[in-house]
């Protein structure tokens, strides 16, 4: 990532994002479009597939029901969506362009180079790629400094997470502007510190997913049983706290410090097929300090009370939705 | 697991669970006790540690606030908890005994053998072990057929999942009785088909946990950033659907079949440090059939609408609890 140069407020103001172009209108692209429309932006969509516009409009209408419940921004309207089958003209007037083509490096590189040629000089170009690194994606672009990864999660119109990954050539000012834009559409920007295949969240999910495939493959559980092992247990905690804070609370009064003493040796057991890193003193202290910072000075007991308060409400909310309920309960 | 023999209804009725003994009263043991008391059982607790009774009573009182909100069974009372520092007398009159000693094989084997000697002949003995296999644990017991694993999740008084794992010597009738008991205290029993280190849920969590440790160790993210990558994204879906049904919905109209076509090749990429199983035709079909069965005849669109309906409510519920909110928001 390149350091900011010649950054000034006036220039920033003239770069304010008003018009969005979304390239590729499948599950992810249409999710971006619904989210941007609900937050009061004008959106131009483009996709070369036959019938793409019709499918897109149906998807956005389905999402709109939920977005209305979440709350629409002033002036938000489905009528502010325009479909343009021509890529060059679709992106030509946009301040922010979000690309959602299939996960093929050659295809995405060529597509981003074309977008880069047709876009306004100060437009930001973000790719939704789940696995390809931004330095690779930006390498054929004339202005690689405005190209980065903005990786969302399905359904994009409801889940707030977006991973922002700058490439080697990306300007730090672009990262800041992209982050501000994503926040303006209700998202939580997570800046990924190093380029890595799968970024952060997909690596975590993929580890769990691969172990789940092993479990089914070895006849230990069916897919429904693996799913039950998540939704009735860890899944409930993960809506509130990630793996670190969860284990911080499993360690009793001493939190993560005690947890690592007690379950550190487990890292060497064959509990998954994944080999863990060595639990060095440095790693141990980094994790303990991280969890303590996340606790913001609150005791484990205070965090437990907060967790339980949430879980009681979540359990009541979930009852009619869970697999143990008749699926028709919330249809 | 041994097949049921001489199973008759009258015998079952005389074996009904009324009195519970809980051995070991740390985080997990006290969680069991709170759950059993809230469901109207008499509980005898035992633990050799100094001050154990006092700590236990404080823990159960803290849990009671949440349990009252969830709803207490008729006659449920904190006064139905008795503490007995003597192991033999604590378990002597119990119909169901739950063991929660530290995770050390030698310690647990000896303890279970002692419990087995002091317990009534028809009492059920369950271990909360997260990693040790039941065949190992029951090997020093005189009546190993009534010994099995019943592995819960923290906080035990709120999370419904319990993994039931029979050992080689466990009688199938005992498995059924244990499962019925756990259901009577509001839990979701998950029978694990094969003994395996870490059972099912902890293997999935451990895979994610090990990858999280690698990510922190490699400087890709801090603990807070890893946690954010879960709570603002996948964590929201996992309260409702496990990894299989989640990916079934990511595949568009064709569900898991399309998903495996599109992301099957990803299994070979270095997205985690865990090597995935080979995606054979047999495994592929097993997973697709599993997801289709879990869908109970509903279309992907119907499942999406149900998911979104839940997510809208969950997002509203989570707002004051999330790290982005001031932690004091729900203290």
Automatic annotation (TrEMBL), chains A, B:
<dbReference type="InterPro" id="IPR036291">
    <property type="entry name" value="NAD(P)-bd_dom_sf"/>
</dbReference>
<dbReference type="InterPro" id="IPR013328">
    <property type="entry name" value="6PGD_dom2"/>
</dbReference>
<dbReference type="InterPro" id="IPR006176">
    <property type="entry name" value="3-OHacyl-CoA_DH_NAD-bd"/>
</dbReference>
<dbReference type="GO" id="GO:0047728">
    <property type="term" value="F:carnitine 3-dehydrogenase activity"/>
</dbReference>
<dbReference type="Pfam" id="PF00725">
    <property type="entry name" value="3HCDH"/>
</dbReference>
<comment type="function">
    <text>Catalyzes the NAD(+)-dependent oxidation of L-carnitine to 3-dehydrocarnitine.</text>
</comment>
<protein>
    <recommendedName>
        <fullName>L-carnitine dehydrogenase</fullName>
        <ecNumber>1.1.1.108</ecNumber>
    </recommendedName>
</protein>
<dbReference type="Pfam" id="PF02737">
    <property type="entry name" value="3HCDH_N"/>
</dbReference>
<comment type="pathway">
    <text>Amine and polyamine metabolism; carnitine metabolism.</text>
</comment>
<feature type="domain" description="3-hydroxyacyl-CoA dehydrogenase NAD binding">
    <location>
        <begin position="19"/>
        <end position="194"/>
    </location>
</feature>
<keyword id="KW-0520">NAD</keyword>
<feature type="domain" description="3-hydroxyacyl-CoA dehydrogenase C-terminal">
    <location>
        <begin position="198"/>
        <end position="266"/>
    </location>
</feature>
<keyword id="KW-0560">Oxidoreductase</keyword>
<comment type="subunit">
    <text>Homodimer.</text>
</comment>
<comment type="similarity">
    <text>Belongs to the 3-hydroxyacyl-CoA dehydrogenase family. L-carnitine dehydrogenase subfamily.</text>
</comment>
<keyword id="KW-0963">Cytoplasm</keyword>
<comment type="pathway">
    <text>Lipid metabolism; butanoate metabolism.</text>
</comment>
<dbReference type="InterPro" id="IPR026578">
    <property type="entry name" value="L-carnitine_dehydrogenase"/>
</dbReference>
<feature type="binding site">
    <location>
        <begin position="24"/>
        <end position="29"/>
    </location>
    <ligand>
        <name>NAD(+)</name>
    </ligand>
</feature>
<dbReference type="InterPro" id="IPR008927">
    <property type="entry name" value="6-PGluconate_DH-like_C_sf"/>
</dbReference>
<dbReference type="InterPro" id="IPR006108">
    <property type="entry name" value="3HC_DH_C"/>
</dbReference>
